[in-house]
Amino acid sequence: MKHTITVLVENEFGVLPRVAGLFSGRGFNIESLSVAPTLDTTISRMTIVTSGDDQVLEQITKQLNKLVDVIKVIDFTDQAFVEREMAMIKVSTEATTRAEVLRIVDIFRGKVVDVTPRSFSVEVTGAPDKIDAMIELLRPLGIKELVRSGPIVLGRGSKGWRSAD
After folding, report:
1. CA dist 22 to 15, 27, 57, 122, Å?
2. 36-42, Cβ contacts within 8 angstroms, sequence gap of 24 or more
3. Which CATH number fits domain 82-153: 3.30.70.1150, 3.30.420.40, 3.40.50.720, 3.30.420.10?
């Protein structure tokens, strides 16, 4: 089962390896990891996507909560949330394919961020399924390079992470 969790941590040296170590120590692969400071620059937000059994994830969540630098752990698996990801894709272009690439980028509300005589670099944001669909349409045209941010999430509704549960 896929799990998306957010871990709010003190923005200090060594926190990332300790958090990642809990996953590897239990045999869980981290499929995606995104880390950035919050509005409070002393706190970072980690968004982790992993797959596995509910019992092991429950153990990891309990262990994460025991780490000194961890402020809060939120498991979005059974909650309503908004999920977004960004991808940058470099696509081969020839005179015959340029218009098709531009149409695909437009359909997915992407943006061309760099142009050379033989390629377009495009940026697209949205749900991971949207990114996947765009990649599949561009693949036959010749993707030269691809980088994805990994999903980030926010819970739906008006409560923030500082709110009482």
Report:
1. 11, 9, 10, 36
2. 37/11, 38/8, 41/11, 42/10, 42/11
3. 3.30.70.1150
Task: Give the dihedral sign, CA 150/118/112/102.
Answer: negative
pTM above 0.90, yes or no: no
How many Cβ atoms are within 10 Å of 8's Cβ, its own excluded?
Answer: 19
pLDDT digits (tens, 9 = 90+) for 2-50: 889 999 999 989 899 989 888 888 788 899 999 999 999 899 999 999 8
Q: Taking the mean position of all CA atoms in its chain, how far away is CA 99?
A: 30
**CATH 3.30.70.260 residue ranges for the chain:** 2-79
Q: Phi-psi region for residue 142, left (φ > 0), alpha (ψ -120 to 50) or beta? A: left
pLDDT tens figures, 73-114: 998 888 888 999 999 999 999 999 999 999 999 999 999 999
